């Protein structure tokens, strides 16, 4: 088969600028990680769980009440968030409490909410 379909087949209009921006581009691995993160938070339930956890440490029961969902549904999404490293947990008695692992994720969410507010 032939060459890659992703190869450029034209000349830059501003070669110097194109080279400068190209040198500042992140590598594909970085963009792959970003895409995986965005896919993770693109789920309606997960984004709500993350938002709630950015406000306070909560157990599954509390999250189920807040989001009006079953404990099973909440637990399933928490497992994905925990495996991805976005959420951490601690056990206290018979309950497991969850919290955000990184404060900067809340900042990303807040900035995104500001962005969509002004897109209207």
UniProtKB/TrEMBL annotation:
GO BP: response to cadmium ion
Keywords from the named record: Cadmium resistance, DNA-binding, Transcription, Transcription regulation
Cited NCBIfam families: HTH_metalloreg
Protein name, per record: ArsR family transcriptional regulator
Sequence ranges assigned to domain HTH arsR-type in this UniProt record: 26-120
Keyword ATP-binding: no
Source organism of this protein record: Lacrimispora amygdalina
Listed Gene3D superfamilies: Winged helix-like DNA-binding domain superfamily/Winged helix DNA-binding domain (1.10.10.10)
PROSITE patterns membership: HTH_ARSR_1 (PS00846), HTH_ARSR_2 (PS50987)
SMART domains: HTH_ARSR
Chain segments annotated as transmembrane: none
Keyword DNA-binding: yes
Pfam families on file: HTH_5
GO terms for MF: DNA binding; DNA-binding transcription factor activity
């Amino acid at each position: 088969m032939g060459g890659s379909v992703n190869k450029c087949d034209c000349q830059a209009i501003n070669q110097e600028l194109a080279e400068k921006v190209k040198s500042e581009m992140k590598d594909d691995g970085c963009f792959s990680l970003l895409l995986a993160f965005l896919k993770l938070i693109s789920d309606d339930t997960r984004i709500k769980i993350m938002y709630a956890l950015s406000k306070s440490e909560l157990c599954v029961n509390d999250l189920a009440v807040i989001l009006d969902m079953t404990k099973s549904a909440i637990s399933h999404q928490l497992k994905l968030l925990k495996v991805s490293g976005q959420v951490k947990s601690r056990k206290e008695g018979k309950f497991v409490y969850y919290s955000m692992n990184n404060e900067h994720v809340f900042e990303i969410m807040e900035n995104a909410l500001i962005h969509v507010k002004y897109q209207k």
